Each structure stands twice: as C-alpha cells, then as structure tokens.
Amino acid sequence: MSSIHEFYHRRYANIARSSPGPEAEQTFHLRVAAALRAMPDPAARVLDFGCGMGAASKRLAAAGHGVVGVDISEPAIQQARSAVPTATFQVIDSEGHVPFPDASFDVCFCTEVIEHLFDVKGFLREMHRLLVRDGLLLMTTPYHGWAKNLLIMTCRFDTHFNPLGGHIRFFSKRSLVHCLQSGCFQVESVRGIGRVWPLRKTMFVKAHKC
Prior knowledge:
Strand order of the largest sheet: 3-2-1-4-5-7-6
CATH topology: Rossmann fold
C-alpha cells in the first residue's frame, strides 16, 4: 500500500459513520443541479469521481444516467452501494489510477474533490483517458479570488489553511483553468455557486476533452 493511499485511507476510513453527508453542505444541491443541467441528452455514461456515500450519484442515476462512482474510502463505497442500487460503485487506490478502459465515459463529474488530491496531474490524465472524444468534465472546487483571499487572510487564515485539514490545494479561476488546459481540456465556462461575487463559495467548471 502506498503512503498516499494510507493517508487517504486513514483520513476517510470513518466517513460513512462520522460524516453528516454532503447533503448538509451549503451548496451541494446547487452543484448537483448545475451538473444535471450541463449533462448531454440522451442519458450519458457518468463517472462520479470521489463519490463518497453516493449522494450525487443518486441524483444523477435518478435522472436516467448510467452512473459509476469511485472513491478511496471503502466504508463510503459500501454505504453508497446500499443507498443507490441503480448505480455501480468501486474502491480505487489513488486519483492516478481508475481501473476502467479508455473512453469508458461520456461525462466525468467531480465535486469538491480536486482540492483534496495529491496528484492533480495524474487525476486529469485519468479523466482525459476515461472520457470519449469531446467528453465532458464537470467539476467544482472552492473559489479563491483576490477579495475573498484578503478576507480569509485577515480573519480566518489559520483555520482556512489548517495544515492538518483535508484541503491541500487552493484554486483561483486562473489557476484552475491553467491546470485543465495543461491536462488537454478546453474550458467552456467557469461560474460561481453560493454567496455573492467576489466571495463565491465554489466554482463550477464545464470543460471538454481536447
């Protein structure tokens, strides 16, 4: 077992027992609704990367899409299988290796996950490999812009950038677009979700595989 896998396993081992679930998060329903609006028609093959206990997978499957959820946490995957029998779930070892063939999915959905990842390049490489030609990557991550960062630094620096916390990446719109472009994705749109500009809670990104 790799040291990175051990880190993830320890941090998220008890997620299914101790977490109130993503439905309790301020923007969860807004993020999933945005993804559903961006989905292609007819029904798509969707990878829910970092699916946790399957809350988003449940909504995606209910909309008629064929959903496969993957996560590093085995307890979370076990709960997802019970909660969403219409979807398929699988434990993965790392963000850089998702055990499905090339071009397996029309859409990859990843909400509030990339900020937790060690290997962002490996993750984007796998998403690119797993998507069909011109496939769609839908992703959200907390927003960090100048005004919001100034407020964070003034009032909540130690809490927000807690070195023992789960967030290890902090993206501005520019840095996120740069990462996606370097991973061979064409960014179609980036918009804010939650709160008012310039203090947006999160960013919703729609990008296509180049």
